[in-house]
Amino acid sequence: MARNTTSRAARTTRVEHLTQGLADEILSGILLPGTKLDEQSLADRFGVSRTPVREAIGQLVAMGMLEKRPHVGAVVKTVTVERLSQMFEVMAELEAICARIAAERMTTAERKALSRLHADTVAAVQAQDAVAYEQLNRRFHNSIYKGTHNEILVDTTLEARRRVAPYRKAQFNVPGRIGASHTEHGSVVEAIVDGEDEKAYRSMRAHILTVKDASIAYVVQQLKLDFSTK
User: Fold this and answer.
1) How many whole angstroms separate alpha carbon 230 and alpha carbon 222?
2) Other beta carbons within 10 Å of 165
3) Given this structure, which CATH class describes domain 2-76?
4) pTM score, whole prediction
5) 47 burial level (CB within 10 Å; 0-12, 13-18, 19+)
6) Interior/surface letters 151-161, b for 16+ CB within 10 angstroms, e for the rest
7) 120-132 confidence digits (pLDDT tens)
8) Is domain 81-223 in CATH 3.30.930.10, yes or no?
9) What is the per-residue DSSP string for the chain?
10) What ranges do the domains of the chain cover?
C-alpha cells in the first residue's frame, strides 16, 4: 500500500511539473497558438512515459490553454484577453466569498496561523524570490479557503483557481508585484482576524482584480495580444 501511495505521489508530481512547464512555454511564446503537441516527442523531451504527458495535456485542455482538434490532437489555443478577464472575474468573486465566510467562521487558532503565514512571506518579499513567494501565496489562499469550513465552496474555488493558475503565477514576473501582493494580503488578513466579513470580502475582491490586471498585462506583453481581442 505504501509503495502504491508513493508511486501515485511521484506520478502526480511529474504531471504537475509537465503541466507547469508546458504552461510556461505557452505563456512565454515558445509554444505558439496552433502548435500541435506530440505526446511521444514530449515524453522523450521530458524523460517520462506518455501517461503523465497525456494527463498534463488533459489538464491544460481543462485550463483552456490547449484544445483538442479532430484528426489533429492537442494544439495550443489562442489566448484572448476577454477569456482571461472572465476567468479572473469569477475567481475574484469566489475568493471574496471565501474571505467573507472565513472572517465569520475561522477558529482562533486558524486566524493566528493565517497571521503567521502572512508574516512568513516577508523574507520572500525582501529577497524578491518569486518561486518562494508563489508557493507561500498558494498556501495563504488555501488557508482562507479551508477557513470557510465549506467543502463545496473549497472544491469550487480550487477548480476555478486551477484554470487560472499559470496566468496567476505569471504576475510575479511584473516588477514590484510581489511587494504589492504582500501589502494586499495584509488588508485581507487584518479583516479576517478582526472578524470584519464585509471588509474581508472587499479587500480580497480588490486583490484578485489587481491580480487579474497584472496577469493580463504580463501575458499581453509576452504574447503581444491586443486588449480588444475577442
Assistant:
1) 18
2) 18
3) mainly alpha
4) 0.79
5) exposed
6) eeebebbeebb
7) 999 999 999 999 9
8) no
9) -HHHHHHHHHHHHHHHHHHHHHHHHHHTTSS-TTPBPPHHHHHHHHTS-HHHHHHHHHHHHHHTSEEEETTTEEEEPPP-HHHHHHHHHHHHHHHHHHHHHHHHH--HHHHHHHHHHHHHTHHHHHHT-HHHHHHHHHHHHHHHHHTT--HHHHHHHHHHHHHHHHHHHHGGGSTTHHHHHHHHHHHHHHHHHTT-HHHHHHHHHHHHHHHHHHHHHHHHHHHT--TT--
10) 2-76, 81-223
Q: Is 2 exposed, middle or buried (0-12, 13-18, 19+ CB in 10 A)?
A: exposed
Question: For residues 83 and 223, is the Cβ–Cβ distance under 8 A?
Answer: no
pLDDT digits (tens, 9 = 90+) for 167-194: 888 899 899 999 999 999 999 999 999 9
Mean pLDDT of 9-35: 82
